[in-house]
Structure formats: C-alpha cells, structure tokens
Design goal:
12 helices, alpha/beta, two-stranded antiparallel ribbon, single chain, 42% helix, TIM Barrel
Amino acid sequence: MHGISRRTFLQTASASAACAALWNEIPRLFANPLGLPLGLQLYSVRDVLPKDYDGVLHQLAALGYREVEAAGFFGRSPSEVKKSLDSAGLHCVSAHYPLAQLLPKVDETIQFGKDLGLQYIVCAAPMLKDPSRVKDPGSRAARESMTLDDWRWNADQFNHIGEKVNAAGMHFAYHNHTPEFLSANGVLFYDELMKLTDPAKVSFELDCGWATAAGQKPVDLLTRYATRIKMLHVKDFKMGSGATPLPTPPSTELGHGVIDYHSIFAAAKRGGNIEHIFVEQEEFDMPMMEALKIDADYIRALPA
C-alpha cells in the first residue's frame, strides 16, 4: 500500500463496503435476466393472507418481492388494499378473476381495478357457453369438456371485456391452465384463442408451469406468440416419469423441479415484450416463506 495512509485506506475500504452492500441490495428489486421487478401471485399465500393481511405483505416485501398479482381481496376496498400495499412497499399491478365472476360484474370489477391502480385485469378461468349442460360448471372436468365452440364463445367474451377494460385505461389478459392445450378436429384451443382474440384488446399471461404440465414447451409458445404474451407465471413441478404428463403434478420450489427457466427466460428476453413476471407456488412441503425465499433467490440468480 505504498503512498496510501492507513486512515485513507480505511476510509476507502468503508466506502467500498458501503457500495458493495448497496449493489448487493439492488438484485432484490429486480428479476434477472429480464430486469423486471420481482412479482408474486398472491394465490401462493391464500391460506395465510386473509388471517394477517398486512403482516404477510410485509414478509413478502422482506423477501424481495416488489409487485403482486391478486387472487381475491377478502372484502377489502381499493383504498384499504392500497394502504396495506403502500405500507409494505408493494405494488399490485394485476388481478385474477374467473370469467363466471367477471361477466356479471364487468363494470364493477373495472372500477375496482381503476381505483386500485391496476395495469391488468386477467381472466384466469374460462366457462362453458351453456353451464347448465354439466353438473359442476366450475370444475376441472367441466373445463376439460369444453368444445371448440365453447372456446370460440370465450374468445368473443374476451374481446368485449377487453374493449371495456382498455377504455378504462387498463389492459385485459387471459391466463392459461391445462385445458387450453387440448384440441378438437386438429385445432389446439390455445391457438384458436390467439386467432380469434383482437391483439389490441386481449393479451396473454403464460403460465409456464401449467403449459409444461400439458405437454407444451413454453419456449415454443413465447417464440410463436412473442407479441401476444405480456406476462409470465413462473412455477415448478415434480413431473412423473411416465410418458403421460400428470394432470396435477406436485408443486415445488423453483429449481427443484423439471422446468428449465434458463431457456424460457432467454426466449422471453428475445421476444422483448414481457412486462411482469409472477412467481407462484401452489403447494408447500416446507415453511411457506422459506419456500418463497428459495423461489425469489432462484429468479434473482438466473444469468442475464
């Protein structure tokens, strides 16, 4: 250390340490490699959120999550939700609704979203054109029984809702599970939704986990529909070893399952249209916040 006094060295070292600490905190705010704030779908904490709304939100913020996507508001008003989010340093940018709930309350839902400051209203479950033809129209079996005509009817509803949502200054999107990747007469239902929905009115939120469980490759979907897919759900599953994918594979922490998010994020980065990503874990076999920390750390560690 020729030419540098001990005092100067210690001052420089302290400044360097402070800078290093600051830079170490920056990755907590963003999800690599897309450079987006780290988001969480609040369905992940559905069992504890109603019991301790403010406390759970603060715990999520402490893990580095900065955006959230709602799956119900538990009777709270937009102002009450916003107050809790602001206190935790979180921003709710999107909210999920099944079509059966959305259709009869479109205007009310739009006003709620506008008051809350949402960017997206998302339909997370389709419905039968004629719900009376099945015993339980909200069941998985009912969704899997949907015909091409049902999906075409849903696309028409999405266009109408999307027009209203857009007029209110927000965006409308559709979120997949697995039935969208069934087909009839050689037509994949997901492709038909893309074909029949107006790109100016309807965007898509790709659930990479459910698409994979349905036998699809998210990389291919992100490549084929780069301009339509605006948001990602990021989750992992432990798939079965058989040739046929499990209909409901066990959920696990990111990086502990079979889904290759390195290639998925690379495809998303090439497309350049992803605006938000949301971690979602459906089940836990360890303490919830410990698992969600593993998920957050995995996303932050993905190479750019």
